[in-house]
Design brief:
By secondary structure, this protein is of the alpha+beta class. It has a single domain (about 5-180), classed as Alpha-D-Glucose-1,6-Bisphosphate, Chain A, domain 4, CATH 3.30.530.20. It is about 20% helix and about 40% strand. It contains 2 helices and 9 strands; from the N terminus they run βββαββββββα. β5 and β6 form a beta hairpin. It starts with a strand and ends in an 11-residue tail after the last helix.
Length: about 190
């Protein structure tokens, strides 16, 4: 890969070049104006954990604890709760870059959490956690995220690094479950 290029895992709309979801697509960071508008980052992670769907749901829904175990989440606050819906303000970032944005989460305990945002920096944002009880008593977890920034530069920079971040997020939730609920029994080791 040449200097000035990054890889983005993305799904492209029918009007653009075709690529499989999860297939690396080179993005020219030097000439961001050339990035097609239809580029959207999509990522799906699946993992099987030896915890109940309810335990994992509660862990995922506890967004105010995210700064304790997700290093890029600097702050998280539930602004409002109404029925199964929560409104969350979250600050994401690193030492050099910080951005606060708001999301709305629909909590369908213990099977699904759907998170959307109409934040002005985003054209589209949707995260979905799906939890299914597995025959062995554990849970099959699917995490899917689709997003597109209004800024082509942000899309190129963040979209290109998101594949690793999504995988790290799934692993962080697995480690957090182990800390909160203890290690699965030796007879039922965690598989991913």
């Amino acid at each position: 890969m040449r200097a000035g290029q990054a890889h983005a895992r993305c799904a492209l709309s029918p009007c653009g070049p075709t690529a499989s979801a999860g297939e690396p697509v080179p993005v020219n960071v030097k000439n961001v104006g050339s990035i097609p508008r239809q580029v959207m980052t999509s990522r799906t992670e699946r993992v099987h954990l030896k915890y109940t769907a309810t335990q994992l749901f509660d862990l995922i829904a506890d967004v105010e604890r995210y700064p304790e175990f997700l290093p890029w989440v600097l702050a998280a606050r539930i602004r409002r709760r109404e029925g199964q819906t929560i409104w969350v303000d979250m600050t994401l970032g690193t030492r050099f870059l910080r951005r606060r944005f708001s999301t709305v989460g629909l909590l369908e305990r213990p099977h699904r959490i759907t998170i959307t945002s109409d934040d002005p920096m985003l054209e589209r944002f949707e995260q979905r956690w799906t939890l299914k009880t597995a025959p062995d008593g554990g849970a099959d977890v699917e995490y899917r995220v689709d997003f597109r920034f209004r800024s082509r530069l942000l899309q190129a920079l963040i979209g290109g690094s998101f594949a690793g971040r999504a995988q790290a997020m799934a692993q962080a939730f697995g480690l957090r479950a182990r800390r909160l609920y203890g290690a699965p029994s030796q007879a039922n080791p965690v598989a991913s």
